[in-house]
Structures are given as structure tokens and as C-alpha cells.
Amino acid sequence: MIDSLPPLRDVIRSHDLRAKKSFGQNFLLDLNLTARIARAAGDLRGADVLEVGPGPGGLTRGLLAEGARRVLAIEKDTRCLPALAEISTAYPGRLQVIAGDALALDPLEHLTPPVKVVSNLPYNVGTELLIRWMTPATWPPFWDSLTLMFQREVAERIVARPGAKAYGRLALMVQWRANPQIVLSLPPEAFTPPPKVSSAVVHITRLAAPRFPADAATLERVVAAGFNQRRKMLRAALRGLHPQIEAMLLAAGIAPTARAEEIGLEAWCRLARALKGDSR
Ligand code: SAM
User: Fold this and answer.
1) Closest ligand 1 atom, residue 8 Cα
2) Which of 254, 76, 58 minimizes the C-alpha distance to 149?
3) Which residue's CA lies nearest to atom 1 of ligand 1?
4) What whole-number percentage of the chain has pLDDT above 90?
5) What is the pLDDT of residue 77?
6) Which amino acids bring their CB within 6 angstroms of ligand 1?
7) Rounded to 5 degrees, what are φ and ψ at 35?
8) Predicted model pTM
9) How many contiguous H segments (helices) and E segments (strands) does the chain have?
10) Centroid of ligand 1 to alpha carbon of 122 (angstroms)
11) Cα separation of 87 and 61, whole Å?
């Protein structure tokens, strides 16, 4: 037991929180597991935690029990609010719940640094938010770390290295400015109801500055073009980007006959700089 609140099965029964597909709901009911996910986020004492999609509050309880200074939780399903209010009462002044769509809300005014993001989200919302959190207008972003549940296949795309089948835009977008690591693997049965696929928790810590210099928009454009036609040689896949693309590739130390999945982050950054006329 991690707190004096009722077991999650009882919470779900008493508040009639049957999981709804339309909200992408697969709940974690094992409080030992939610405490492990909370611990995977590192030391939470002295940090504000942003949790998107608390549902009946299993992970929320783990975060509070593990010592988070404050938790700001955004939940779209208003049926969950009474259960979350009970957690607020058990942890006075430490849990703020905002009812709404995390894709449409800006929670920044409610958060005080350092901020850690910890969430078990519906998979489609999770990927969209990850992309937003990784591509802010300025770096460093508002968060120090992201600890997020993904379907296993997406988690593998985030941590993939050159040469791997899963290597592509997502790996490069995250690894350019952060360190991602798979910290926990979960079978479908860990959830109620079980999803069709396995899941994994990815812990991402941000770097103070990008690993290699490059203009973010140019890097995104060149990587997108390269992987959109990942089986083609780069001189063909990137033809639309520059009239002398072969010369640009050579200037960046990349063989024009190479394919996108063979090219490491540093070389992609060199190519982005060459295309931008930046000779650093
Ligand atoms: N975190 C809880 C847990 O681990 O048991 C619930 C996980 S469930 C996979 C996803 C939760 O996100 C649901 O409670 C759902 O209502 C909520 N949700 C879905 N889309 C959302 C959105 N756009 N904004 C905020 N919450 C959302």
C-alpha cells in the first residue's frame, strides 16, 4: 500500500469509471507498478510534475507518494474528476487537476521549474505531445525530463541507432537534444483493459544545448526528406532540397549513394549546416 486511499479497483467501481475506448483508456491498477514508473522519473522531491491523462489516478498517487512537490494533472474525461478530488484531499495543496484536452491547453502558467513530465497517455496523444515537447520555439524547453508510456514499437523508434529498422525522424528529433532510454517494459496484461500491444516507458532527459549545431527547421526538413524515401540513395531522396545536392552531401562528408538509415546524427547536422550555408 502506498497511501491510505482505497484500492484502484474500488475507486473505479465506486465512481463507475469503466474504461472508454473513445478516451484511449487502459488503466494501471497496480500501485506497485505506478510507484515504479514514478521512480523511473528520478528524484521528484523539489520538482513540479505535469501528468497528462491521470484517469482514476494510479500514477498520480505513485507520483505523490514518491514525493513530488506538486502534481498538475490534465484530464479530458470529467467522470474521473471526483476520484481525483479524493486524491487532492489526501495530499493537501499538492495536486491540481485541470479538466480539459491537453492538446488544446497550455499548462505553463501553473508550473514552477524544475518541471518533470510523467504520463501514461493514449498512444496517439502521447506521440503528438512528445513531438511538441521536443520542438519548442526555443531550447531549453520548460521540462527537465519526460517519462512517458508508449507502445513498444514507438519506444524503439525513439531510442533507435543508425542502421536499425526503427531508426528515423523520431530518433533524430529526440536524440539531437536529449537522452532517451527505455526504462520499463510492460505486457498488455499490466493494463485494464489490456491493449493489443506491449508497452514501454521511455525516460528522456534534456541536454542544455543541442548535441551538434544546426538550424532546427532545416534539420527537420532534411531528415524528413531523407526518411520519406528511405530506400532511395540520398542524392535522389534529397534532390528537391538543393540544385547541387551531391556537392552539399560531399561537403557534409556523406556519400551521395548512402541511404538515410545509415547516416548518424552528427552527419545530418553537418548536412543541415551545409544547406543553410553555415560552415561551422
Ligand atoms: N494515467 C492513467 C493510468 O495510468 O491508469 C490513465 C491512463 S489511460 C491510457 C489515458 C488517460 O488519458 C485517460 O484517463 C484519458 O481519459 C486521458 N486522455 C485521453 N486523451 C486526453 C487528452 N487529449 N487530454 C487529457 N487527457 C486525455
Assistant:
1) 5
2) 58
3) 54
4) 95
5) 97
6) 23-28, 52-55, 58-59, 74-77, 80, 101-103, 120-122, 125
7) -65, -35
8) 0.96
9) 11, 9
10) 6
11) 7
Among 23, 78, 197, say which to mutate for ligand 1: greatest number of ligand atoms within 8 Å of CB: 23
Tens-digit pLDDT profile for residues 110-165: 999 999 999 999 888 999 999 999 999 999 999 999 999 999 999 999 999 999 99
Cβ burial of 63 (10 Å; 0-12, 13-18, 19+) is: buried
Contact 185, 198 (CB under 8 A): yes
The answer to whether the bond into 114 is cis (omega within 30° of 0) is yes
E strand spans, the chain: 27-28, 48-52, 70-75, 95-99, 115-119, 145-151, 178-186, 191-192, 199-206
Q: How far apart are CA 25 and CA 194, in angstroms?
A: 10
Q: Which domains does the chain have, with CATH numbers?
A: 8-206 (3.40.50.150), 216-276 (1.10.8.100)
What was the pLDDT predicted at 2?
80
Query: Cis before residue 193, ω within 30 degrees of 0?
Result: yes
Nearest Cα neighbor of 115 from 147, 83, 82, 78 is 147
Least confident of 105-109, 156-160, 207-211, 221-225: 105-109
* 104 CA to centre of ligand 1 in angstroms: 14
